[in-house]
Amino acid sequence: QVQLVESGGGLVQAGGSLRLSCAASGRTSRVADMGWFRQAPGKERVLVGSIGWSEGNKAYADFVKGRFTISIVYATNTVNLQMNSLKPEDTAVYYCAARRLGLNEYEYWGQGTQVTVSS
Questions:
Q1: What letter would DSSP give residue 27?
Q2: Model confidence over 53-78: pLDDT tens digits?
Q3: What gap in Å lies between CA 45 and CA 42, rounded to an integer?
Q4: Cα–Cα separations (whole angstroms), residue 108 to 1, 61, 63, 95, 99
Q5: Hey, what's the torsion of the CAs at 87, 89, 93, 99, to 10 degrees?
């Protein structure tokens, strides 16, 4: 089992920045990669970006490239999502998720944290 707890959401004006954190605990040795997802009201949940747990390889959705950065702090098993140049359309509940080695789906999910960007 892997437990995930997000923090860092809030209200920010357009153009501002926020950093979300996801604290992972439990059997993190079995984690292949971590993903950040978001779900806006009335829309499906979409992948924002991901990072390989061991290799640190990163991938981002086109709509956040150049603005968002994912990183891992191994000392605390924390995955951060640095969000810059925020836009009102970035408003959503953000979730972190963990995918285990050998699986294709993200199996473990955090509770989500609200990000609201005002215009």
A1: S
A2: 998 899 999 999 999 999 999 999 99
A3: 10
A4: 8, 20, 24, 10, 7
A5: -90
